[in-house]
Write the C-alpha cells for this entry.
Amino acid sequence: MLSRSRVVGLTAVVFALLGLGAVPASASDGGVTCPPNQPICVIVVTDPGGPGGGGHGGGGSGGQQVCKVAGSGEVVPCFDPVFGWWSNADGCYYKLLSPQPPATASEWDGHYPRGAIYAGTCLGGGGTGGGWRWFNTPPQGYGGATPTPAQLAQQAIDTMRLDGPAISLTLANGKTGLVGLPVWMWTQVSATTWGPTSARAAVPGMAVTATARARQIVWDMGDGHSVTCDNPGTRYTVEQGARSSPSCGYVYSRSSASESGHEYSVTATTTWNVTWAGGGQSGVITVTRNSTARLRIGELQVLVS
C-alpha cells in the first residue's frame, strides 16, 4: 500500500531547576558559568516552549470539510500540491491524470471515454492501495471548497516553528540571586526564538506567504511583577559586574524563601506578529509562545558582633 511520509516537529520543553551549588560549565553548553574570582555567575536556561504554547488568532475551518484518516482519526490537509485532493470515502488522495491514458489502458475497464482516471495515493485505514483508478464523476472531496487567503495564512503558520524564549538569566554568588542585585534577562536570538522566519501555503490558483517576527517578551518574574521588553535583551558578560541591564532587567525586592521549592517560577512569553499576503489580500496574525525557568533569590545577612 502506498503511504505518504508526514513530518511532525516535536519541541521538547525543558524546565531547568537552578540548584544551590555552583556547577562549572561552558556558556556554549548551557548551565552555569562561574569564572574564577568573579562575583557573578551566569545561568543559561534553554526552554524553547512548544508550537502549542499560547494561542493564535485567525484561521479556522470556515465550514470546510475536515479531512481525516479513517483508521487513526488523524487530521490531514484536504489538498496536497503533490498528491491532490483527499477523499474521506476511502482514505486516499486523488489527482487527475493529465494527459489522460490512451483508450487502450486497462484502467478504463471499458468505460472510455466516460469519466476520467485519477492517480491515487492512500494513507491506510481502508484505502484502496493507491494507483490509477477510473471514476465516472470526481472522487468525494475532489476540488473541495477553496480556502480563503486568511485560512491559507493560518496553514502556513501551522508549519512554522515558533518557540518561546531561549531563557538566559544572571545570578549572583553561584548559588542564589540576591535581593537588590540586578537580574539580566535575554533570549538567545535565532529564527525560531526571535525571527524572522517564513512559510508558504498554496492551493491551485492561490498562494500565501507568511513571515513571523517577535514583537516583545513579557517576563513574569514570579513575585507578582512583570517586565515587558520590546527587544531580545542584552547578553550578560562578567565585565558588566553588578550593573543593571541596559535593555531588559529586573531587581527583586524580596526573597523566594516563601515560594514553592524556595524558588520563583519565571515565565517569559514572546508575542509574534505574523504578516501575510496572497490571493489579493494581506493581514497580521498574532501568536504567543512561552518558556519557563526557576530562580532562587535570597537575602544577604550581615552579622555584627
Q: What stands out?
A: The longest strand covers residues 206-220.
